[in-house]
Amino acid sequence: MTLASNDSPLVQLRGICKHFGNFWANRNVDLDLYAGEIHALVGENGAGKSTLMKILYGFYRADGGETRLAGKPVHFHSPRDAQAAGVGMVFQHFSLCPSLTVAENTIVGQGSWLDQLNLKRVEAQLRTLIERYHLQLDPKARIKDLSMGERQRVEILKLLYRGAEVLILDEPTSVLSPPEVDVLLQTLRQLAEQGKALLFVSHKLNEVLRCSDRVSVLRRGEIVAHCNTSEIKQTELSRLMVGSEVADQLATNTVAPAPQRSAQPILRVQNLYVKGTLAHGTQMAVRDVSFELHGGEVLGIAGVAGNGQRELAEALAGIIAPAAGQVWLRDANLTHATPNRRVRLGMAYVPEDPLHNGMAPNQGIAANLILRRHQRKPYAMAGCLNWRAIRRSTREPVSLFDVRSPSPDSLARHLSGGNLQKLVMARELWQEPDLLIAAHPTVGLDIAATAAIHTELLAQRDRGGAVLLVSEDLDELLKLCDWIAVLYDGKLMGIVPPRAGKSVIGPLMAGQATAEVQPKIESAVP
User: Fold this and answer.
1) Residues 292, 474 contacting (CB under 8 angstroms)
2) DSSP code of 142?
3) Residues 91, 89: Cα–Cα separation, whole Å
4) CATH 3.40.50.300 fits 1-86+196-244, yes or no
């Protein structure tokens, strides 16, 4: 397609509206995107960012408004229409075939029959693009041998090969280590300098301020601000996203120092092995991992997605069985204990994606709060559930954890992401466990809901409990944790204090260095 001059927007969205039933996801949205710029789009979870992106990409059709490309009205009926017009999108989760090469992935489902017959010609064209945009890739490399950062560059390369002039990037740094984030932001700047128009969607405001030229803020489906990035601060962006009152309240929330930790560890993990296939092709997802966690501590598990974090958390919670090694909760060997026995002995678990892994979606709030307790008095009497007692006793955790819903009988699947996470947290912390394992508890949540979850994690720590926090958000771990353990390819690369910073933790996440692990291995397993 022919680029418009920098004086005219390459993309113009005017009065875009989209509703789902009575809910308006986008209402009268105007947005201009210029060639040669990185334009950031920010907003709370549910603000309408994803809907707007999918309209521009042809996944949804707007209910009102107009899209112009290079000054001409366009009507995309599918993503293929958008791609043909020069609009491409890099999704948060990649769509690559691990066993194929970079070149083969580039033409899968898209290349002409000539491309299929002449792969060498495709590889030559890719090398030209790789050199022009400094993508540092080998067209003959297989995806399974590439890092997450390299895989993301393959997704960008696919769009460039197909002629994209407009690139939409959905949370592009969420699966990257800090060094890979730096490389990505440099790549995006190089793309903009060569005339591409980039729409950068992210909830990480520090990265938005680092890389974008302009930023637009969506709130409840409407644009509330267009700003030059150089003229706005992070605190102002937060206020625009959530409102002044909420932003001011969150700004006063500081993490108090941890209380004195318990003398004896609550959790001990010794030489743990867990089966599973990782992103790098490794067949053992957790390999010889050992650490301790004391009461009054938050231990973070850091790592790029697919390096064994999920398997470690599930093995500790009893969801999957270890292949070897030991897990101790105080003096009880729980290596092969059932999840129910772990709960009885003081372990709580907030799983990843709780709606599908930790809740009964078609049951009410009260029913979900008594899972694992439904056979005990006063909830069960003579083999029947006592709903009066259930509703009465569950009012306290609903109020304490600020779970907002029309009634205790509201179905779990009808709750927002933030209220769903608070409901799971309420259930797991209600009985004040010795150990809480929380896997990605704030993924997809807005600023206010994230702050509420952080408050509950720290409350568990402050009353003398232990918290194992699995997160791919390094900023979150640096803020909350007393120690951070880094996993790479299933191995423990090191356990360091937060003050070590991203300059130390980033290379550990990329498997480029190791750090001393001894500070958390202080007592032998009996």
Assistant:
1) no
2) B
3) 6
4) yes
At residue 437, what are phi and psi to the nearest 5 degrees?
-105, 115
Q: How many residues does the chain have?
A: 526
What are the backbone angles phi and psi of residue 247, rounded to the nearest 5°? -60, -40
Tell me how far apart the alpha carbons of residues 213 and 41 are, in angstroms, rounded to a whole number: 11
- What's the confidence (pLDDT) of residue 1? 36
How far is 70 from 472, CA to CA, in rounded Å? 38
CA distances from 413 to 194, 260, 356, 364 (A): 46, 39, 9, 9
Q: What pTM did the predictor assign?
A: 0.74
Hey, which bits of 104-237 come out as E strands?
166-170, 197-201, 214-219, 222-228
pLDDT at 519: 44
By CB atoms closer than 10 A (0-12, 13-18, 19+), residue 216 is buried
Find tokens 């418009």 and name the residue.
Answer: 4
d(CA 379, CA 185): 54
With contact defined as beta carbons under 8 Å apart, do 207 and 236 qualify? Answer: no
Q: Is 457 exposed, middle or buried (0-12, 13-18, 19+ CB in 10 A)?
A: buried
List, in sequence order, every residue forming a beta bridge with 395; answer none if it has no partner: none
Tokens for 218?
């969506």
Give mean pLDDT in consecutive 10-residue pieces for the chain, a chain of 526 residues: 61 94 90 97 84 93 95 94 95 86 86 67 94 92 88 94 94 83 93 96 89 94 94 90 63 63 91 84 88 96 90 95 96 94 93 80 79 64 66 74 73 76 84 92 78 90 96 92 94 94 90 62 39
Please tell me if the domain spanning 1-86+196-244 has the same topology as the one spanning 265-346+432-520: yes
Q: Which residues, in sequence order, are CB contacts of 187 under 8 Å at separation 6+?
A: 133, 134, 135, 153, 156
CATH number belonging to domain 265-346+432-520? 3.40.50.300
Q: Which residue ranges make up each domain of the chain? A: 1-86+196-244, 265-346+432-520, 364-430
Task: Compute the half-sphere exposure of residue 270: CA atoms within 13 Å on the CB side of its CA.
Answer: 14
